[in-house]
Amino acid sequence: MAEVLPSTPVEFLKGVGPKRSDALVSELGIKTCMDLILHLPFRYEDRSEFHKISGIHGEHTAVQMLGVITQAKEVRGGRGSRVIAVFDDGEATMELQWFRGAQWIIRNLPVQKQVVVYGKPNLYKGKWNIAHPEVELFSHFENRKGNGLHPVYSSTERLGRQGLHSQGLAKLIRNVISAVQPAITETLPDRVIREMKLMGRSEALHTVHHPPSPQKAEQAQIRLRFEELFLLQLTLLQHKNMVTKDLPGVRFAEVGEAFNTFYHERLPFELTDAQKRVLREIRGDLNTGWHMNRLLQGDVGSGKTVVALLTALLAKDNGYQSSIMAPTEILAQQHLEGLREMLGPMDVRVELLTGSVKGKARKTVLADLKTGHIDILVGTHALIEPTVVFGKLGLAVIDEQHRFGVAQRAKLWKKSKVAPHILVMTATPIPRTLAMTAYGDLDASILDELPPGRKPIQTVHRTDSARLGVFQFLEDQIAEGRQVYLVYPLIEESATLDHKDLMDGYESIVRRFPPPKYQIGIVHGRMKPEDKTWEMDRFVKGQANILVATTVIEVGVNVPNASVMVIESAERFGLSQLHQLRGRVGRGANQSYCVLMSSSDLGQDARRRLETMCRTNDGFEIAEVDMELRGPGDVMGTQQSGVPDLKVADLVRDRPLLSSARYLAQEVLADDPQLGREEHIALREALETALKARSNWVRIS
Ligand code: ADP
Ligand code: MG
Fold this sequence. Notes:
Layout lengths: L16 H12 L4 H5 L5 E4 L16 E13 L6 E7 L4 E6 L3 H7 L5 E6 L1 E4 L2 E5 L2 E4 H6 L5 E4 L4 H5 L4 H15 L9 H7 L4 H9 L4 H33 L10 H10 L6 H14 L6 E6 L5 H14 L3 E5 L3 H15 L6 E4 L5 H12 L5 E4 L13 E7 L6 H8 L7 E6 L5 H4 L7 E5 L10 E6 L3 H13 L3 E5 L7 H18 L7 E4 L5 H12 L5 E4 L12 E6 L7 H8 L10 E6 L5 H12 L3 H12 L1 H5 L18 H17 L9 H13 L8
Parallel strand pairs: 4-7, 10-15, 10-16, 11-13, 11-14, 12-13, 14-15, 17-22, 18-20, 18-21, 19-20, 21-22
Antiparallel strand pairs: 1-9, 2-3, 2-5, 3-4, 5-8, 6-7
Helix pairs in contact: 8-9, 9-24, 9-25, 10-12, 11-12, 21-22
């Protein structure tokens, strides 16, 4: 065989060919030898012991036996053919069976030779058998180094049909690694290797596939996971440097009249220490002449809006306009009203632009925006339409960011000759690891303190059998003048049924709390926008006691007098959604409550979610549990969420490694921003290779 390099496509390997290489690409994304080598075992089995058929018992999850396959035959019937073989360990015999890939198996099964058989024993009609066992020639088994620990690889049915189940992959990978190993060079700088006490790259790649001991296997895995996280952090940090330090930003050097007047005369409360700290961080960015790209995380109610407003006033003092983009019309409307109220008679013009601002009003807004007569434009997606042209946009605030896609954010950049400063605000706390990756190219500020005087929300879990008690509690709260949210799940897959539940729920509430003594509102996605707004309005003004709704009220809505949130079928909601919903209460001076209703028959994950909600109000803690339960991709939402593709590392398991990787990447870049130095050549090349394979590692935030 010609020389095999890490970059050699797998189809050129002996014994692979077009069919298997197609399967490798489409099933596992493996194109080159390096990809193959980086297909790490997901666990190791201890294969040091041989069992006897007579010794098999029900507690064995898998057994390994030594013996001979005495006969094998293909049996046709029913749903295709299968293979039945007889295995003899010298004392007794048992059946081995294959239900898939029969033709390939019958051709390749080593009959009348010493073999090692490994698999999960099943008891059928009083006899043990094994379905789809691994079978390997004893001579191969013995030749293999690191005999004790046996790597197990993930595979798929299609690969299995091509003979590339775990063991087939193991064999292929073993061959490739010995051929390629001489060409594997170190990528990480010496100081990083020393600091982290890492195994060398070549040794690690060999050891993961041939581990002499569990400890060595772990060390090798850690080295490879660290490398991946380190390269990712270098990419993100380089990108961050590019959009901040290399891209000129508008300089807001002045703290002028608008900011000062508001701060000293209009601000209705003292800022929390967290708000002050974040403002300092923002002002630091704005005064550098570089471009700000900042993520502001703050739990619901932590007071992000006023931070955004103060930043917008800084922009005005320096002659620039701001935009504030919200995910829904209701929220945009609330922002408009909230900002106007806070600003009072100040000479700051705030306008609204949403889909429902039409005709003459829209024309006026657009015209005044262009001439610079509007200081702050609040709106929805409508803001990023090409027809919306700012005279001088200096700051783009994006509220509740997770609803906006990356591409939409990028459009904001194009609204101004010099890219506006970007402030992304999110009320969904993001686990630290995700903040360091999905938003690794943004600077992060955290509002980790609620304004004073808030009483922590009390959360309880009740099953349907306690419903009468819950209704009585609602009646008492309403008697004290409070208002209640009652939320039903509505998910697309079961929309019709869910809608029926919602309507049934509404009717039973109206029966329990009849008019005219009680006023019950309802809001859901099938209503016309104007009806929705009318119902919301009624609730906001305190004219309705109970608002029955789907999750449309999830984000941002502010009704301080609402003190009870009842969530029906709470087991069907995700943690972050539950947390968001709960954040709708606890905004006023009264003690607030959240009641999680569920059936009594709960799965393990659902139980954990509800327990977590009852235990803590801390959004960051909730986010961590959420990520453990669902994995990083789902926590962030869709593909475009920006959770990077990782091949060997895992954001949940490798949290501590990630922090070190980020820290060391920062150190290396501080020394050598372009990685131009001699000692970083290999690193730069590794980075380029990694980027080619993972296009989603860099994006515009
Ligand atoms: P969120 O971070 O969820 O967007 P808001 O900005 O809507 O939070 O603030 C929630 C409420 O807290 C608002 O009524 C706001 O006026 C009030 N608030 C914000 N900061 C403070 C503060 N430092 N002291 C007292 N109340 C505050
Ligand atoms: Mg908000």
